[in-house]
Specification:
alpha/beta, FdhE-like fold, 10 helices, globular, binds zinc ion
């Protein structure tokens, strides 16, 4: 999406004004979100130095639903992972529930073998391997997963940026509800604004197309509105949404009546500015609570929506 977006702090400030009750949580996560957003630019030169060979984009593979980095190893990217860890770990140390594990996490990421092994589990989908790794340390597996995702995310973001064409402009080539680059499920979705293009009538439209946002690598892609990103079922009555009756500002939860998974969604036609999506996902935590009360499961568990 070419439209300019708010920064993390602009998005959080707007959410805090509308929902003062969320202020303490937003404040706790803000430094981490801001640092994560700034890291890819810092890591880009390290990626060039590493000589890491990025898997090429192939139409057939995409049609088969294989994410670009599926099964790839981050071997060779330890300098980027270490830089990311050095930047983010001190910020995590001040977050509730993480401080007591700060030293153990620091030791963990100083170990190249353990770091690469844990990072690769995010691309192989072998979460049990990460649990086993956690068992070799004193770090609870939920904390380790959060830390590994936080540290690996900006590195994957740096890799994802190397694929020049936005995924949103290749709508027919990727049909899956998981990320075309890293394979992770989206943390948030948005419906785009109305488009006005004087020169190209084909591009003009009423907006409302659905896009999914990957919190891990930052990739966004177009997805069918009537389909469930989790179980893939499609048709009338499959997807429903929940929203507050007043002052929702386009914030809602899209949930699947078949598999009971949900994804927070923001309808940009009901907002002026386009938010930073990672900050927005955090700012929709009140909707996560509504979803939990309804017995729904988050498509992408975050530190704040695992009840
Ligand atoms: Zn991704
Ligand atoms: Zn479903």
């Amino acid at each position: 999406m070419s439209e300019s977006r708010q920064t993390v702090s602009e998005t959080l400030a707007e959410i805090a004004t509308r929902r003062p009750v969320l202020q303490p949580v937003l404040k706790a996560f803000a430094p981490l979100l801001e640092a994560r957003a700034a890291l890819p630019e810092k890591l880009a030169p390290l990626l060039e130095e590493s000589g890491f060979a990025l898997p090429p984009w192939r139409q057939e593979r995409a049609q088969q639903g294989a994410p670009l980095l599926a099964g790839a190893s981050l071997n060779g990217l330890y300098p980027l992972l270490l830089e990311s860890a050095k930047t983010l770990l001190p910020l995590m140390a001040s977050m509730p529930g993480l401080g007591e594990h700060a030293e153990a996490l620091k030791t963990f990421f100083q170990n190249e073998t353990l770091t690469l092994k844990a990072s690769d589990t995010l691309l192989t989908g072998h979460e049990t391997a990460l649990t086993q790794t956690a068992e070799q340390t004193t770090i609870p597996s939920a904390v380790l997963l959060f830390a590994v995702e936080a540290v690996v995310g900006p590195v994957l973001h740096t890799l994802a940026k190397k694929y020049d064409d936005p995924w949103d402009e290749r709508p027919s080539s990727w049909m899956q509800g998981f990320c075309p680059v890293c394979g992770s499920f989206p943390s948030i979705a948005y419906l785009d604004k109305r488009v006005f293009d004087e020169k190209n009538a084909f591009l003009a439209g009423g907006g409302g197309k659905k896009h999914l946002h990957c919190a891990l690598c930052g990739t966004e892609w177009h997805f069918r509105r009537g389909a469930c990103p989790s179980c893939g079922q499609e048709g009338s009555g499959v997807m429903e949404f929940l929203r507050e009756s007043e002052n929702s500002h386009g914030e809602r939860i899209d949930w699947c009546t078949k598999c009971k998974s949900y994804c927070p969604t923001v309808d940009l036609r009901e907002r002026n500015a386009v938010p930073n999506m990672d900050a927005m996902a955090l700012g929709m935590m009140h909707m996560d609570i509504v979803a939990a009360q309804k017995g729904l499961t988050p498509l992408k568990p975050s530190f704040w929506n695992q009840f």
